[in-house]
Write a sequence for this structure.
């Protein structure tokens, strides 16, 4: 579907990948409804974009806030579900409340928003939903059990939703970013990758979102070729791929991520 003149609701728009996605959608002529917890950052984004944008702050850890956001957004043609918590660290380092919060923001809220807004798209016979997952939604690594659970779940929900919507005129795309160097969770952590493990830019994630909508792509990986090949290998030979990850220092990277992101759970 063409984005020009369409209304797009974007969650997690206040920073990280959200800003890059907002810029990409706006550049294609979409009208934006941007949402995140921090009102002041949303207002800065609205000022930067200048027109065709309005802000609806919401904390998606609160189920009532997610329902209110769906109601306030009104009729949308595109839904981009980007809001997420890092949830990095070993499973036994999380409190029950932190696990619930990760599930609420990363999985429950996207499902609930889709279940409210997508039927309206189907009634009109036009629309698109984009789930921003992660390569951690395809391959789990040390210190990612909680985060991967939410992202694997997102991929499963999106896959089933795509089948349910077949022939309705509503498309479903899942975008799987790898390590993004200039924005988002990895960039903010300051973690160091092993030699040879490449990165991508936030702008490439924004471009992938646009491509998924305009080309009707079901899944898009945003990662260098060696990283994508490792993902494919993990699906075919998970034990072997896990051993390779460990030899490359995945545990050390995971520890750095967990230390940097512990206060964001």
């Amino acid at each position: 579907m063409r984005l020009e003149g369409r209304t797009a609701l974007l969650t997690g728009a206040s920073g990280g990948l959200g800003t890059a996605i907002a810029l990409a959608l706006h550049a294609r002529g979409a009208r934006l409804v941007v949402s995140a917890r921090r009102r002041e950052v949303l207002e800065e984004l609205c000022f930067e974009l200048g027109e065709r944008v309005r802000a609806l702050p919401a904390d998606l850890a609160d189920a009532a806030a997610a329902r209110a956001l769906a109601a306030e957004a009104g009729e949308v043609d595109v839904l981009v579900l980007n809001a997420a918590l890092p949830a990095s660290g070993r499973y036994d380092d999380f409190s029950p409340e932190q696990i619930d919060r990760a599930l609420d923001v990363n999985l429950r809220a996207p499902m609930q928003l889709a279940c409210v807004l997508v039927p309206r798209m189907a009634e009109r016979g036009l629309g698109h939903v984009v789930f921003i997952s992660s390569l951690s939604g395809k391959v789990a690594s040390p210190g990612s059990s909680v985060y991967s659970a939410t992202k694997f779940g997102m991929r499963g929900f999106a896959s089933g939703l795509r089948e349910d919507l077949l022939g309705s005129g509503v498309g479903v795309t899942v975008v799987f970013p790898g390590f993004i160097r200039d924005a988002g969770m990895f960039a903010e952590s300051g973690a160091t990758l092993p030699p040879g493990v490449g990165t991508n830019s936030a702008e490439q994630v924004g471009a992938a979102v646009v491509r998924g909508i305009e080309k009707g792509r079901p899944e898009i990986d945003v990662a260098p070729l060696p990283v994508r090949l490792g993902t494919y290998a993990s699906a075919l030979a998970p034990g072997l791929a896990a051993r390779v990850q460990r030899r490359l220092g995945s545990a050390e990277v995971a520890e750095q991520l967990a230390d940097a992101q512990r206060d964001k759970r």
Q: What stands out?
A: The chain is about 50% helix and 10% strand. The chain has a mean pLDDT of 92. The radius of gyration is 18 Å. The longest strand covers residues 170-177.
